[in-house]
Amino acid sequence: MGGSSSLESHRLTDPAVHPKVRDHLRRMTFPVHANGRANGYIVPSNTEVMDDDGEVRPLLGNRHTSHSLRPEHNFWRHLFLNPTSSPGTDDPNPFRRWPARVWNVTKVTLFSSWINLLLIFVPLGIVAGEQKWGAGWVFSLNFFAIIPLAAVLSFATEEIAHRLGETLGGLVNATFGNAVELIVSIVALRAGEIEVVQASMLGSILSNLLLVLGMCFVLGGFYNMRGPHGEGIEQSFAQGTAQTTCSLMALASASMILPAALYGVLDQQEEDHKQASILVLSRGTSIILLVLYCLYLCFALRTHKQLFEPEAGSRPQTEEEHTPILSPWSAALVLVATTVIISFCADYMVDSIDALVATGKISKTFIGLILIPIVGNAAEHVTACVVAVKDKMDLAMGVAIGSSIQIALLVTPALVMLGWAIGQPMTLHFETFETVAFALSVLVVTYTVQDGKSNYLEGAMLLGLYMIIALAFWASPTDAFPKTSIPLTWN
After folding, report:
1. Transmembrane ranges (predicted)?
2. 93-102: per-residue pLDDT in tens?
3. pTM, to two decimals
């Protein structure tokens, strides 16, 4: 057999052989299996054939058999390094298919963002909380653990939203876009940390209005500051977005100023009567704000959605096509699992706040106003800045200011109503300095975005105001702000 194969190989390369014979031999294929058999006969490893390009190749290495003899390392590379798929997910055997799908969902989720490298802090934070490490360690480890968990939550939400269409997808984003702040605040509210809850809500709004939007304006302005002829230009976004945003944020500011003003007017009344009046006002206002938020969703996503589209003549700002990788059920499972893990980390972090504040190095207000919003909005920060650099300012505005509207008109009123249900007297009466800082921030943002254009100078102004506010709360003593919430023993 070996001599016959060598003879056939010689005929393929011998110029004396008739061309038709060589063509016939070249077209011959041999179904070779991994054990080296072809049609039941052993094929020597040195058997050669001529390929279509005229090159002589070993039979076992030609293109007809390369797939069946692919090296094993390709399988392992696909199993561990492919960010979108895994082998075995369509296997007819359910005992191989379901483990493969579970592994695929886990791998795709882990590869969704480079921030997921910080997931190493999740087990460390849980161990620190269980073993009662120092307050600084417990707070810090769980602080860094929640950052990648927020990114995973954002990834799963986007996977679901892209499959549900614009309207329902918008509702999903509205519900889960601020899930981290909501989870942390619920944990703190159950623990009676109303001061932390109020500060985290206000801090999340200020973080999106000033820090995120300012970074979008700065980065987008620097990367897109020159026109086709080298002249300085501004980025633009839909006029409806600017007008509606300014109106809603002014309404949110009024909902905070009025309780503070009423508290000042009732200064001569007994404390119990003042607190009762503030509580009634806060709960009634929360119901009104929730109704207005539902109307805003209907207005923006259905009846007047054309007002929020890029204006004619502007550069296209549509979002890039995204093909969902996870199925809706897989993304939902990731969403539920991540939410459960975040609740554990948030519980440990909130429990360590009192001990951390007792050291006198940091105040509860600074933790809620600055630190917690940074954790919850980490994924949104990155997303908004990336799309701003790509000159998609409508999308960046939707991520930054849309999140602020959600916190002001949905999450904060919902927490007031939740406190009512569980017996925690959460109100909309914020400390005076916090209220003034929020009102001034809304005023500056309104003047900045009302023309529907942005540049890096306006972004720098927003960032400067955020730094000034953060510095003010950092420089103030731990007990500088009086407690404005109702005592937990109040009935």
Report:
1. 105-128, 134-156, 168-189, 201-225, 246-266, 278-299, 325-346, 366-389, 396-422, 428-449, 456-475
2. 877 777 888 8
3. 0.69
